Amino acid sequence: MAEKTMWGIHAGSEGEADSLFIKNRVIAIGWHRVGELTQYKGREAYKEVLQKRYTDISLGALRNTAGIFYRFVYEMQIGDLVIYPSKLSKQVYIGEVKSGYKYQPDIFKEYPNHRDIVWKANFPRTQFTQDALYEIGSALTLFQVRNYAEEFLAAMEGKPKPEESELTLEEDKEDVAGLTENFEQQAKDFVLKQLKRNYKGEALESFVVHLLEKMGYHARQTPPNTPSVDIIAHKDEFGFENPIIKCQVKSEEGTINLDPVEKLCSRVKPPNEYGLFISLSSYNDKAMRYAESQNNLRLIDGYELVDIVLEHYDELDTKYKNTIPLNKVFLPSVTK
Q1: Which of 7, 126, 207, 296 is spaced 20 to 30 A from 80 at the CA atom?
Q2: How far apart are CA 101 and CA 90, in angstroms?
Q3: Measured between alpha carbons, how far is 36 from 23 in angstroms, rounded to an integer?
């Protein structure tokens, strides 16, 4: 068991408070109409004020929210650890609580209830086993992480992640079938893990060629050891018509830095050639800023590639679908 209590927290249903969490180094909860939380003594008092200020709140939400208030103000302690899965960056942040409860509505009106946090580390979601991701995908805003706390601690300490068994594919299929909350994100995690597991090096290049063809391009791999360019794609059959797309593909773990991005760009001749860099991981700030300054360069990270795969999934050859097995399902609508 972990020596310190470990909490999981979300920054709103769409990640509304993500910037507040990361830039201001705080964790926060909303329900701003309630006001300063220490003026109320206990769960029953929280329930009463919630019913007054949010008249349409359901009985279940009333109980859950009162419990969240109590845990955030009275149970969470300085030194506790916090897991924050960002919906925007797709990173999992691990931090340590550094202050007691603070009411600071001037910083972010909708999220006025704060605790200072020191972020110790952040990792891509694929760093963790699927079961650990399910636990931090709780429907609650604030919850205690119990079952997989040691896995998150190990990541923070630089220890290798637990091995997933060879039967992971079958286990993932069963797990995905039972998902209710955060279904879309969990499904994307599954697809990205399958890409990383099954496509490395030239295998990923071949997959991207196939995907580009399903998107309406003619594409081919370049000869081995061609500097910085793995794939060339174009719209016409012979490759005479502009534009020409030169693509580099990376399957390795780890954040992509500026150097390989600049090298790809050096191989692209404007105005009729374009660079496309596809990685199963992510890019650092320098690489992204550089790409934003180039009109003929596009970076695709792992989750953006997953979005493209899902969009064209029905058109993929069976051999590729077999490595990324998905079924269409109907889910309850959450629109009001």
Answers
A1: 126
A2: 27
A3: 23
Query: At the topology level of CATH, where does 6-163 sit?
Result: ph1033 like fold (3.10.590)
Rounded-to-integer distance, Cα 324 and Cα 274, Å: 29
d(CA 297, CA 291): 6
- Strands 91-97 and 81-85 come out as antiparallel
Q: Topology of domain 198-317, per CATH?
A: Trna Endonuclease; Chain: A, domain 1 (3.40.1350)
Name residue, tokens 């992204």. 288
pTM: 0.61
With CA atoms as reference, report the closest residue to 197 among 325, 312, 90.
325
Parallel, antiparallel, or unpaired: how do β-strands 81-85 and 6-9 relate? parallel
194 pLDDT tier (thresholds 50, 70, 90): very high
Tokens 């792992």 identify what position?
302
Helix (H, G, I), strand (E, B) or coil at 31: coil
